[in-house]
Amino acid sequence: MDTERLLESGERGIHLLFDNGTIAAAFAQDARRLEAWVRGDGVLVERAIRGLLAQPSATEGRAFVSRLPRELQYVLVLLYFELLDERLRRRRTLH
Hints:
With 95 residues, the chain is mainly α. It has one domain. The protein has helices at 3-11, 20-27, 31-40, 42-53, 58-66, 70-94. The chain is globular. The relative contact order is 0.19.
């Protein structure tokens, strides 16, 4: 998967891996509960990330995400937005 393209699209507000409903639901979650869920099964999160990155396209990545348990989808959404936020912050300080 072309992660650079994903992040460039994300900078423009186009989030290729997640639908708007999943994004909204992820941000509505209790952060502590999700954090506890990740701590309880970090291996599953790592596998999901590796599986997502192994997808040949954003379309297939989106389908992959949609088949994951909801909590894991939410974790991936939040991680994606953390990466995107960090990327945008870095770019601001370089210009």
